Amino acid sequence: MVKEISEKIKESIGSVEPVETPYDQRGYHLSIEATQANIVDITGFFDRIGFYLADMCCVDYIDYLEIVYFFNNHSKVCRIRVTLKVDPERPSAPTISHIYKIARWYEREIHEFFGVLFEGHPFMTYLFLHDQIDFYPLRKKQVPVPEKDKRLLNSFNPEEQEDGFFLNLGPQHPSTHGVLRVVVKMNGEYILSAEPILGYLHRMHEKMAENRTYQQFYPNPARMDYLGALNFNLGYVTTVEKLCGIEVPERAQYIRTITAELNRISSHLLWFGAFVADLGGLTPFLYTFDDRENILDILEAVAGSRLTYSYFRFGGLFNDVDDDFVKNVKKFIDRLRSRFSMYERLVTGNVIFINRVKNIGVMDKTYPLKYGCSGPVIRSIDIPFDIRKHEPYAAYDRVDFEVATGTNADNMDRYLIRIKEMGISLNIIEKALNDLPSGPIKAEKIPKKLKPPKGDIYHTIESPRGELGVYIVSDESDVPYRMRWRVPSYSNLMTFPELAGGSLIADAIATLGSYDLVIPEIDR
Amino acid sequence: MGKGGLHLETKEPIIKLAIAEKFINLARANSIWPMTFGLACCAIEMMAAAMARFDIARFGAEVFRPSPRQADLMIVNGTVTKKMAPTVVTLYEQMPSPKWVIVMGNCAISGGPFGFKGQYNIIEGIDKLIPVDVYVPGCPPRPEGLLEGLMKLEEKITGTRRFPVPEQRW
Questions:
Q1: What phi, psi does A270 have (nearest 5°)?
Q2: Residue A479 near chain B (CB below 8 Å)
């Protein structure tokens, strides 16, 4: 497939030279250097052949800025990196937001952190930062914001610009699951348009990464997505291991799989309670928290904390699991399986619940490509895209499991998929526990100061919310040169304005709940 | 309990009804209504404190109100960014008096792990903006920690502690 695309793109756009890269070391198959003139054509080419924009970020190499685009597809393992060099003095690039809608947010993000102006972008204002910041935070040298760009800094305030009835959902609103603000324009009870405003919990993780050694950055991923902390931890650790070529012992891989799946269940359980609470039923919340506490007990015994675990280390684990762990996990599997039928009676068959979620928030088939959404959101559109199957990591290729999908693409499907996923995770844990090998849990000779070889890497894992991508650029020092996090909720949330437009405000709350948003992960 | 940072001056009332006041304070301390207000990771532990295992209802503080106008306790649980700070202050101002603030987690106390050199986006300590009664450290604190903070707050309101701390006898 890689050769095929390489030839096709040469044929379609004459002046490009795709270079094949080693996938095992770099995480992508093909690298293409684009110019200001042909980047829009290249993007259009990938749109035509059914690729989606997986990530878009910028790296400051002082002499030049490099915008990096990652294209990926849902059927075959083939990731392509496209780079575009930009002059640091007057940085500007053509927009691709008319081809991929998700680029609207990526380009705004690059603009506020690096100062790259995207020509032709319809709405170039700040997305994350507050309006008093007068420099570009992720540039290596302090660059002040030019006077003429200062008007762009002002955050988005539609109520001052337009007539109409506006409603602020958030930043303090129980159903936004954190500090997300959505400004909705209303006509009676119906929503005319919705615009999410991010950045109320921007905690500068990407800036922090450039100030910390690789080991010092361990606690941060857990605080990005505190519900799927182990999965984010796993994403970070596996990326650095791939970059350094560290082999992880078999036992550690299995324990990683087991604990990450336990974490996925605890995340889904919390979502389950919160989703039904959004719709007005608080009782399931109490039940799911009861189950969740059992997982927290098991993980606390091995990882040492209740919520923000940083259990995985480069080359292995923080400590080994004992027989008690195995016994407790087996007990928990039986317990949760027996609870599913109760949840079914309590919620799934409830006629009020069905009326609130069935055929509401129906997604279009074009969304996966236009927005790059992932996780249960994309699986509800009948695309069995799961990184655990697609590009297996840890021990997922050694345990057999199915991928839950739905066909209606509505809130009910997203609900059912997550319920099914909990059952599937239980199966994975059970199989992995049965095959759990003995042996060491940590690779030998991991240096105290890890200095990965020069180069970049893009690696993805499946977090409870979808595709998590980590992009690291190393310059052979013990501090990452640039670390970029592609987070799943970000692209999932971007579909919300389309789904909310024309729906009732109460239904929009149900749709927002069905995404399973974690705001610190979006804001980073 | 909070001593540093910002503090509201409480004026002595003109008429003082010592017994009635004591009784009212006892009622206040045993029916604190917190605000449903989540910022980051600590909010999950706050939710856990309200659920079956830790059961904040044992101390009469289970009525989480989504509106600040019905609440008398604000639990600041998470990083306060510069973009969010005006909202936090507004929420505090919207609460009717008497009102109290528990700060939960290192981020809200001092910036926590995000207070690194060169940071540009967070408030290093919410006590720079609003008066704080009780600090609960941790990253995140366990639900028991929040419950202990609640009891400290009760102690501040009534002057006596709900459960006496056992004297050391060894």
A1: -65, -40
A2: no
Give the tens place of pLDDT for each residue, A20-76: 888 888 889 989 998 888 889 889 998 988 899 999 999 999 899 999 999 998 888
A211 CB within 8 Å of a chain B CB? yes
Helix locations, A245-366, DSSP H: 250-278, 283-303, 323-343, 351-357
pLDDT recorded at residue A157: 61
C-alpha–C-alpha distance, residues A254 and A317, integer Å: 11
Name residues 8-47 of chain A within 8 A of B (Cβ). Answer: none
Give the integer Cα–Cα distance in Å for A388 and A395: 9
Question: pTM for this one?
Answer: 0.91
Per CB-CB distance under 8 Å, the chain A contacts of B142 are 306
Tokens, residue A120: 């032709």
Q: Where are the domains of chain A?
A: 2-155, 213-494
Per-residue three-class SS string for chain B: CCCCCCCCCCCCCCCCCHHHHHHHHHHHHHCCCEECCCCCHHHHHHHHHHCCCCCHHHHCCCCCECCHHHCCEEEEECCCECCCHHHHHHHHHHCCCCCEEEEECHHHHHCHHHCCCCCCCECCCHHHCCCCCEEECCCCCCHHHHHHHHHHHHHHHHCCCCCCCCCCCC
Query: The tokens of A392 are what?
Result: 């297996």
Give the angle A202-A208-A213 at the CA atoms, nearest 5°.
Answer: 155
Parent domain of B48: 34-157
Q: In what order do the strands lie in the sheet with A482-486?
A: A455-463, A466-474, A482-486
pLDDT per residue over A76-97, tens digit each?
888 999 999 998 888 889 999 8
Fold for A213-494, please state it: Cytochrome-c3 Hydrogenase; chain B (1.10.645)
Q: Cβ distance B73 to B35 under 8 Å?
A: yes
Q: How confident is the model at residue A211 (pLDDT cuts 50, 70, 90)?
A: confident
ipTM for this prediction = 0.86
Residue A174 contacts B where some CB pair is shorter than 8 Å: yes
The verdict on residue B150 lying in a domain is: yes
